[in-house]
């Protein structure tokens, strides 16, 4: 099981079925906020939907396609961070993250993402990490920018979000760049 302590109060833990009630509650409490940036929110309308999502995430992990980790503050589920779009041939992966509104602006997303970046480069020997953020989601863009990711450009109208297309900012980090920045 993946367990990664970030500090005395914050940890990342692999998402498990027993997390479904807490995860569903977090989504429910933040539904309006999350829908602003995430297209999957309307597909999670029950505890059963949440359990199904966790099972899908677990099967992707077993197949080697990435994983989702819970971000926990004093054992309270605060959000998720994880790997997706894993390519073993290219040794590349994308990182995604989200937090409940009351957990934002506390440094949790940047600390969790930094820990996952370190884990990817050191444990998985990843060569390239990508983070995509909605072009208008300035809070989310601060994460890769503060971590020193290179802004590569904009993917125009790349995602349909309920009733409109959104552009994504694309950021990347190469392993050698990370090592140089963190010597």
Automatic annotation (TrEMBL):
Domain of life assignment: Bacteria
Chain ranges of the N-acetyltransferase domain: 10-167
Protein name: GNAT family N-acetyltransferase
Cross-referenced InterPro entries: Acyl_CoA_acyltransferase, GNAT_dom, Ribosomal_N-acetyltransferase
Pfam name, any one: Acetyltransf_3
Gene Ontology molecular function: any one: protein-N-terminal-alanine acetyltransferase activity
A single Gene Ontology CC term: cytoplasm
């Amino acid at each position: 099981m993946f367990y990664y302590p970030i500090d005395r109060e914050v940890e990342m833990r692999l998402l498990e079925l027993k997390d479904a009630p807490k995860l569903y509650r977090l989504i429910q409490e933040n539904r309006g906020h999350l829908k602003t940036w995430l297209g999957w929110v309307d597909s999670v309308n029950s505890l059963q939907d949440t359990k199904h999502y966790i099972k899908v995430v677990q099967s992707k992990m077993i197949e080697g396609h990435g994983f989702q980790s819970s971000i926990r503050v004093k054992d309270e589920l605060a959000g998720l961070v994880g790997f997706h779009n894993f390519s073993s041939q290219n040794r590349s992966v994308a990182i995604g993250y989200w937090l409940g509104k009351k957990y934002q602006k506390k440094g949790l997303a940047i600390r969790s993402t930094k820990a996952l970046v370190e884990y990817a480069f050191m444990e998985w020997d990843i060569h390239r990490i990508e983070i995509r953020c909605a072009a208008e989601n300035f809070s989310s863009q601060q994460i890769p920018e503060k971590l020193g990711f290179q802004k590569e450009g904009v993917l125009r109208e790349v995602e349909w979000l309920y009733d409109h297309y959104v552009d994504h900012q694309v950021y990347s980090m190469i392993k050698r760049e990370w090592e140089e920045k963190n010597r």
